[in-house]
Amino acid sequence: MTISFNIECEDCSKKYRIRYGLGNNYPQLASFQCYDCSKQIETGYNVFRGDRILNGATVAKEEYDNPEVQVINLHPEIPTKKGKENDPLHFQTFDVFDNLHKQKANFGEFRIQQIVWSKFHSKWSDLEKPLRILSTKGEDKMKSISKLNYRQFCNLFNEWMTIFISGNLESIFDDICDEYNSIDTDDIKTFVNAEPKFLKQINEFCNTYMKHHQHFQSTVFHLKYGWEITDEMIANINWDDIHKVYGDLYEIIGDLFVIPTMMNNVANGRKFDEFQTDGFTLDKYLRTDKANRAMNFESNANLAHLSLSYDSSLRNGTHHKNSYLDTDTFEVSLGTSKGGTVEKKIPIIEYIQKCNELFGMGIILSSLILEMKK
Ligand SMILES: [Zn+2]
Fold first, then answer.
1. Is 187 left (phi over 0), alpha (psi -120 to 50) or beta?
2. Neighbours of ion ligand 1 (CB under 5 A)
3. Count of beta carbons in the 10 Å neighbourhood of residue 37
């Protein structure tokens, strides 16, 4: 369903007619920058049939014939094609049909996937509190406050994770489980259980993404179905809100990579903390630069996929305030070198996709770590 309404920029009074494609999931948010004064304007809904959110602009009266009213197509869950963002006859949903048609995918199945996906946020609402209590105060407190024992908590976490990874990421989860089941994991379990930091990292990782999860919705189905991401796509997001998310996820998953690293050591006939290079220890590994944390398991077919979206240059380029979103081209300019002499640009849609992939890998690892603590 597309909802149309007129607004006026709060700062410069430029008039817009918003055509908002209603998504399936709540909360939902879509955002753009004012064409005249670059004010961030965002709109969406927190709950089904709830009041409309409108930030940076005010509601204006309907004006169908005024050519000065700029049409803006927004959709919280589907990327808009470049060149179509102001087309008064364009519906983003058609692009989804197009993708399904190209893949000869079953529309009924897609609807089911959509319905399952729409529960992702409410499942998180059930999980957020016990995860926080477990990671900061321990199992007993979680049980007394949230009425969940550890096993029930793990089930809840896995249900939530499964909603996200259902589709193309499932095989990555299967592979890591295969690897885990084929090796002797006793020493790794002992290591994990002696380290309370893991639970805190999982809590931090999930919250980092979920706090801004509305901004990452537009490529979730591309990830699930393997639809192509091209630089012809625009995501309606607020860059200021999300420019640090990739780097924050990157830092934490870099720490969680100790798990596949130890698994790979065991899989290659060594002790969990023994590396191929003589004299290289787990202690040394934990002090290496984050950029190298996935190197140890990159030739292990069951584990290598975990680092697919692990990209130190994207982390360095976006984690500082000198990256910005060019709202004419919808590209992110990355400050890649000291002094900013080298400018690299990537489409915003690619940034969104990388965040989604990295998040998927992180919750797969988190689920395994929780399993080890049973
Ligand atoms: Zn304005």
1. alpha
2. 9, 11-12, 14, 34, 36-37, 39
3. 12
Q: How far is the CA of 11 from the centre of ligand 1 (A)?
A: 5
- Find tokens 């961030």 and name the residue: 40
Helix (H, G, I), strand (E, B) or coil at 228: coil
Question: How far, in Å, is the centroid of ligand 1 from the Cα of 69?
Answer: 13
Spatial separation of the C-alpha atoms in residues 267 and 48, rounded to whole Å = 49
**Are the beta carbons of 217 and 235 closer than 8 angstroms?**
no
Which residue ranges make up each domain of the chain?
Answer: 2-95, 119-372
Regions of the chain where pLDDT drops below 70: 321, 336-341
CA–centroid distance, 327 to ligand 1, in Å, is 13
Nearest to 154 by CA among 350, 333, 374, 311: 374
How high is the pLDDT of residue 101?
Answer: 81
Strands 28-33 and 15-21: unpaired
Q: How far is the CA of 36 from the centre of ligand 1 (A)?
A: 5
pLDDT of res. 339: 59
pLDDT digits (tens, 9 = 90+) for 136-156: 999 999 999 999 999 999 999
| Ramachandran class of 38: left when φ > 0, alpha when ψ lies in -120 to 50, beta otherwise | left
Q: What spacing in Å lies between the alpha carbon of 87 and ligand 1's midpoint?
A: 20
Cα(5)–Cα(71) distance, integer angstroms: 10
